[in-house]
Amino acid sequence: MEEQQLRKMVGRHFVVGFDGLVVNDHIRKMITQYYVGSIILFSRNIQSPQQVFQLISDLQQLAEDAGYDYPLLVSVDQENGVIRRLVNGFSQLPGAMAIGSTGQVQNAYDSYQASADELATVGIHWNLAPVADVNNNPTNPVIGVRSFSDSFERAADFVAEAVKGIQSQHVAATLKHFPGHGDTAVDSHLSLPVIHHDAAYLMENELLPFKAGIATEVASVMLAHVFFPKIETAGLPASLSAKMVSLLREDLRYEGVIVTDCLEMKAIADEIGTVRATNIALANGVDIAMISHTEALQTAAIEQVLENVITDKSYLQQLVSTDQTIKGFLANYGVWTNHQMLSDELLEEKKYRHTQLAKAIYQQSDMVVKMGGKTPWKTTDKLLVISFENAIFSNVEDANHLTVPLKEIIHEKVANAVFQTFSLTESPETALAMLDNLDNYDHILFTSFNIKNEADLQGQIYRKLRQSTADVAGIALRNPYDSRWLPEIETYITPFEFTEAALRVAVAKLFV
Q: What's the whole-model pTM score?
């Protein structure tokens, strides 16, 4: 194999990210020197639909000029709900658990189809969604409402329809995070989770949504940075494991692309090292390695793979084999968007239709857990709203997407509502001392963000509120399982996410 063809083959085994809203020297090098097959975009790369379209067109032009055999495949995490990279100028669609709570699988198809329609319009043809994990551990710090359900069967039904919806728009869907990240209390962005389930248990439970997605011919599966000691005796996380690849290929008969989660996450970088992990993954049959951020790590990993394919015949044969799968993937979903134009009018028309769809799904979502107390409220009642400063809960979230528009929505209902906002880092003594004259209010609305335990400041403030004579209602802005720490609460609403559309529906349920 001549050098350029060898470099192209190796490059196709990588998906990389970069900083900035325009093409820079970093990503230009990755394309023109290393022929990377795929690129992942984050919020740092996204400003508006026209900007994203132009960026992708410029990247595709670079690839075409460099002599690529296939278009670049541009990917993004557009799960919707709390995890979405495209915001300004794009529809605000519901997340997985909000959709799952409706009980209507058609909503999964329609919502993910709408999302994929907008992605394809701006040149993105690989969505790293849907989440196929089952959130069967309420203390899970990274999955939570990104999952359709804590029921294996329900999650499977919704995952299948989400995949169909995405791929109906010529966008590749991705089942993640195989073989399941739901039953862990550790975030793999920070350290390596360990799950002690064996293969038989997984086949009957955690893998049901993955089986359902595979049955719909899903284009890709992302491996989790989770260690399963009862399956992988070599001590490798699923993302690097030959046994997990075998489980997918042989037991589940999956024929599509297998991609790692980002190999710069601490579960990998701190335990094994990004460059070494890349080579282990590719040697063990993984098709594509993801390195989302650092140019030096991307360069070192690619150079190491290039050296390996030259010096190790078995390694070369392995990559030649997986390259066949990758080439089929790129041929099926790659599009030379540099030869297209973006119509603002068409995108606005789509956005309008998709916004109406989102409102309808939020209305159907089962967000009212309890509706007691003195509800419904009147707009003339005296209302105190207790809120907390939002903060990054997991590294998968975007800091610039943390704005919670609750105050504006409440003030539309009760103009003179009083807000008391606390920092989650505030001392309990200082915070509790600020809660005076609670009996002057007819109602208190207590909002929460992931109450962790009995000692959590949010729980302490709630118990203080319960001592007043006012009617106390709760809205869980991020985690529906916060109710475990709110004893005796009579009104409890969980919109599953803190997007404006979801909160408008949730707040409306409290009033006449």
A: 0.92
